[in-house]
Specification:
Layout (H helix, E strand, L loop, with lengths): L7 H63 L7 H14 L3 E8 L2 E5 L3 E6 L10 E4 L10 E8 L2 E8 H12 L3 E6 L2 E4 L4 E3 L7 E7 L6 E6 L3 H9 L1 H26 L1 H10 L3 E10 L5 E12 L3 E3 L5 H7 L2 H16 L10 E7 L8 H11 L6 E8 L8 H12 L3 E7 L6 H6 L4 E4 L1 H5 L5 H16 L3 E4 L5 H9 L4 E2 L8 E2 H8 L3
Parallel strand pairs: 13-15, 15-16, 16-17, 17-18, 18-19, 19-20
Antiparallel strand pairs: 1-2, 1-6, 2-3, 4-5, 5-6, 7-8, 7-11, 8-9, 10-11, 12-13, 12-20, 12-21, 13-14
The structure holds ligand C2E and calcium ion (2 copies).
Length: 511
């Protein structure tokens, strides 16, 4: 049955869709936050590298100034100029030692005075800067030497590696920083290294100075992006989870709506799955087919033919019964109208309606269109309204039934005997037929009390001059009893089961 088949697989899919619709915004938001964190860290390392470069440039300016002042003295006797060399060391905060060079040989040093050591200009990147692991005076500490030369003259000023690593440490703080000069680099811990700069795992940024021959690398260790997100984004995470829950709930609700009976019926109606079946109604005495009742079937693509009592309550509840009945009437007219000319007497066509049809006057137009599809006077349309669900007598319903009667539409009270309509009620709505409920017919020859009620109904209808139809006639005994008691019309399996249109048309030609 299509309205409550909920197999496990469908349920699994529904749960998966709900979980996905909840997870998707969370994962997407998470990815966006991750990218945002990476961008922030990139910006941070770029700024740090820029700051380190400008700090080093300031220090190198100071060191270069000392060399510039000493260069004119190169060539003079060391004894005459060694005080000038020492003065630079004393005056300048970053200068540790100074030397004078002649023909690529140091001949005078601020520390030793007269001194001899060959230098190799190739050791200086762009002839200007050299990062050294140590020298004779400080074998455990790196140093950076600035070289200035002009012809045979040269001046060197050295900067202690301690100052350099201090800058790397202080500016870097949470960022990893390294300084590269030529083939060597210095880490924040003051360690001297050979080779290319290290590659940091996160947000690596390298920046070369435009003024001196050095490069600074900045970055973060592995896992920094997560650490950053954990410390900066907790409120956003809560928001993401909130969105996830909202989105999951919406996904769940939308699915439930899509799975709801009324949604499924709407789909079925658009697909034309509700079709008419026809059950003959015969004359009491001649047993000639004098009409039919139109009974709805749901031709479900997976479940096959579905009985109306399984889906009509949902159709009524959702209000879809009105367009469904309209479609049923249109299909019936299309099938039976071509036979109009063969009907000798007006052919009764019974259509079941519900209280929902009586809320406005739309039914009038549906009935008018139905009648107009047939040759004039060839049919009589009977609207069957069940006694179990009688409508309120209001100005609107009176107007509706009056106009229906003007159109020539007849009213039958269905399942008569199971509800409690009064005589007044039958008169108010100008009822034309009573349809005796099949439960009374089934009791013929079985239950004396039911037979008594049946007899009373037949009597009543005769007094009120109402036509009478007995439903659910299955045996000749029932048929004979009803005919003997003057029941005008009979309906039941004895004469024909509800059948599809083409089969009914075919059978009709034989009756
Ligand atoms: P109903 O209007 O009382 O229709 C008569 C029901 O009795 C039909 O069941 C019919 O197949 C069944 N029936 C006819 N002869 C016999 C018989 O000899 N023995 C037995 N045991 N049953 C017989 P069906 O077609 O399953 O329809 C059930 C109910 O669904 C209908 O009862 C009616 O209330 C409702 N229904 C059917 N089509 C429509 C429709 O288009 N609109 C509305 N609103 N309700 C409909
Ligand atoms: Ca009926
Ligand atoms: Ca009935």
């Amino acid at each position: 049955m299509p309205l409550n088949v909920k197999n496990r697989r469908k349920r699994g899919v529904r749960i998966a869709v709900t979980v996905l619709s909840g997870l998707l915004p969370v994962l997407l938001g998470f990815a966006i936050l991750y990218m945002q964190a990476e961008r922030t860290l990139q910006q941070s390392t770029r700024l740090t590298a820029e700051e380190a470069v400008s700090q080093f440039e300031l220090m190198f300016d100071n060191t270069a100034e000392a060399a510039r002042e000493l260069l004119p003295l190169a060539g003079q006797r060391c004894n005459d100029v060694k005080l000038a060399l020492r003065e630079q060391v004393t005056r300048r905060p970053f200068v540790r030692s100074t030397n004078l060079v002649w023909d690529d040989s140091i001949y005078c040093s601020s520390l030793f005075g007269d001194y001899q050591e060959k230098i190799n200009a190739g050791d200086y990147t762009q002839g200007q800067l050299s990062l050294m692991k140590s020298n004779k005076v400080t074998p455990d500490s790196a140093l950076l030497v600035y070289r200035l030369s002009e012809g045979q003259r040269g001046a060197l000023s050295a900067l202690d590696g301690y100052h350099l690593s201090n800058v790397l440490r202080l500016i870097g703080r949470s960022t990893l920083l390294a300084l590269q000069v030529g083939p060597h680099w210095l880490a924040a811990d003051g360690q001297f290294h050979d080779g290319a700069l290290p590659l940091f795992a996160v947000a690596q940024n390298e920046l070369a100075s435009s003024r001196y021959a050095f490069t600074v690398a900045a970055g973060f260790p592995e896992g920094e992006t997560w650490r950053y997100m954990k410390s900066e984004y907790p409120p956003l995470f809560s928001l993401l989870i909130f969105f996830g829950v909202v989105s999951g709930t919406i996904g769940h609700v939308l699915q439930r709506r899509a799975m709801s009976p009324s949604h499924e019926m709407q789909r079925a109606m658009e697909a034309g799955e509700f079709i008419p079946f026809f059950q003959p109604v015969v004359h009491g005495d001649s047993k000639q087919w004098s009409g039919c009742e139109v009974l709805m079937r749901w031709n479900h693509p997976k479940e096959g033919l579905v009985r109306p009592d399984l889906f009509i309550p949902f159709a009524e509840y959702s209000g879809l019964i009105v367009p469904m009945t309209r479609s049923l009437m249109q299909q019936t007219a299309a099938l039976l109208a071509p036979l109009s000319s063969s009907f000798r007497e007006p052919f009764h066509i019974g259509i079941n309606i519900t209280a929902s049809h009586c809320k406005n006057l739309d039914l009038i137009e549906d009935c008018r269109a139905f009648i107009q599809a047939f040759a004039p006077g060839s049919i009589s349309l009977v609207l069957e309204l069940t006694e179990r669900e009688l409508i309120e007598p209001t100005a609107m319903t009176h107007q509706l039934f009056e106009q229906l009667h003007e159109l020539g539409v007849m009213i039958a009270i269905d399942d008569f005997g199971t509800g409690h309509s009064s005589l007044g009620y039958l008169r108010q709505f100008n009822v034309d037929f009573l349809k005796i409920d099949q439960s009374f017919v089934a009791m013929i020859g079985v239950d004396a009390l039911s037979r008594h009620i049946l007899d009373s109904i037949i009597e009543l209808s005769a007094k009120l001059d109402l036509g009478i139809v007995a439903e659910g006639v299955e045996t000749t005994e029932q048929s004979d009893y009803l005919t003997a008691h003057g029941v005008n019309f009979l309906q039941g399996y004895l004469f024909g089961r509800p059948m599809p249109g083409p089969e009914f048309i075919n059978a009709l030609s034989h009756h």
